[in-house]
Specification:
Layout lengths: L16 E3 L4 E2 L4 E8 L2 E6 L1 E5 L4 E6 L12 H18 L62
Antiparallel strand pairs: 1-6, 2-3, 3-4, 5-6
């Protein structure tokens, strides 16, 4: 005997809830943007509980009652915060290179000006490819006759 059972989760009466549209779900984490005032926002990881009947989520962790969150266009804030993070990483001083190249086993070049690449030690062998001859192109191409295609009037 089989039965189909549909369980409807209930959000507790005295619990913090937020609208679904406020949540950015990356699949790995769920983020909301909290207003810090003066046009500044902070991305905040949240742990969500049950989904309510009115397109809302129960908040288990990450937010406190009274905090203001962004309800729409948060994707723009998300892309801006990712851009800032990428720029910050680019501006950080780079870590020194390892003493040896892991792929070739040759010493890593000294930091500073990049060394020009040479093809020293490479053979001219094309990996077994042989020169192939192609058919010559025709000298004249005959025009195509389209007179049999009647245009409808």
């Amino acid at each position: 005997m089989y039965a189909n059972i549909f369980l409807t989760p209930r959000v507790a009466e005295d619990t913090l809830v937020i609208p679904q549209e406020a949540v950015i779900d990356s699949g790995v984490r769920k983020v909301v943007f909290v207003s810090l005032g003066n046009g500044h926002f902070q991305p905040r990881d949240v742990r969500l509980g049950a989904e309510g009947n009115q397109n809302e989520y129960q908040v288990l962790d990450g937010l406190k009652e009274g905090e203001e969150i962004v309800l729409s266009a948060q994707f723009m804030l998300d892309s801006e915060s990712r851009l800032r993070e990428a720029i910050q990483k680019m501006l950080e001083p780079q870590k020194p290179a390892p003493a040896e190249n892991a792929q070739t086993g040759s010493p890593a070049p000294p930091p500073g000006k990049p060394q020009p690449q040479t093809h020293e030690g490479h053979s001219a062998d094309q990996g077994g490819l042989k020169e192939q001859k192609m058919a010559p192109a025709p000298e004249k191409v005959a025009p195509t006759d389209h007179s049999g295609h009647g245009a409808s009037k």
